[in-house]
# Entry
Amino acid sequence: MKKSNILVTGGLGFIGSHTVVELIEDGYIPVIVDNLNNSELSVLTGIEKITKIKPIFYNLNILNTNILEEIIIQHQIDCVIHFAAHKAVGESVENPLEYYYNNVSGLISLLKAMEKCNVKKIIFSSSCTVYGQASQLPVTENNPILKAESPYGNTKKICEEILTDVAKTGKLKVVSLRYFNPAGAHKSAFIGELPKGIPNNLIPFITQTAAGIRHSLTIFGDDYNTLDGTCIRDYIHVTDLAKAHVKSINFINSNESEIEVFNIGTGKGSTVLEIVKAFEKENSIKLNYKIGNRRSGDIEKIWADCKKANTLLNWKAQLTIENIVKDAWKWQNQLI
Ligand code: WQD
# Structure
């Protein structure tokens, strides 16, 4: 049975492209809008190599509300998955206005276009950053939302509040997915993470160090109150994360609630050193790293309680840290 047309904003990005692959493989028809601010046109070829289908793509900034409306109408969009946003924590501290304009005004533009075209379902890309340093671990969706540590985190918090208020009017159904730490790459190595410039995130910095692009990895602090002194995060394979979005469409189509929030992680925390050791072991590589000072804004530890997603979305992460470090390295190796 032909499934519905799904608008995917930011669909050529890291998580967006992996979600487009899973949508196609599940029979949906994705329509991508992406302004290529943090992605490349070559990702479209990667998606086609995996799925044998070249998705519909518009090079568009979602702040162009009128063109968004035309695309929604032309493709009879049934549901929207919204990824398009800036996401670098450090960059948001240096340029907060650009982050509020792009991330918050971008969502408002999208919601206005959806309202005009009577599209009532949205799946939103949120983040565990809204929890800050939780006092109770693992974090559940009922954990308090603490003051954001960065303008980026604050834009996620503000966007969730906007979505909640609009959902309360009864004119919109919302699923907000709070990602933990997305990492890895598609098993084919045809798509993966394409960090711009020096990677902020741990896994791409590890793979670029192993590839000789970076001289060495600096581990930001080993004096935290953890097993080995390094920070703990819940690293989730990007393919597992992508599948959670497809499950969310099934949920939003069959559930009456106005807004539901889900933690999307593995439920398991890993220290930075554990990730480094797993990378070395799985890829038989000795990584050049040193211990440096703590990075400001880093929280000590966080990992997810995903019971709500496991039951209500019928979704559970299947892939492991070993899959993450192997797939990330395979992807790095095929990059020129
Ligand atoms: C992970 C750990 C660092 C780089 C990210 C995004 C955030 C959100 C969650 C989506 C930390 C350490 C890192 C390095 C290191 N994603 N590290 N050396 O900060 O948890 O947050 O994922 O919404 O937007 O920023 O991820 O990969 O930057 O850091 O030691 O060169 O690795 O200190 O403990 P983070 P990260």
Observations:
- The domain at 5-182+237-265 is CATH 3.40.50.720 (Rossmann fold).
- The chain has a mean pLDDT of 96.
- Residues 87, 89, 127, 129, 179, 181, 200-202, 205, 217-220, 231, 233, 272, 295, 298 surround WQD (CB under 6 Å).
- The radius of gyration is 19 Å.
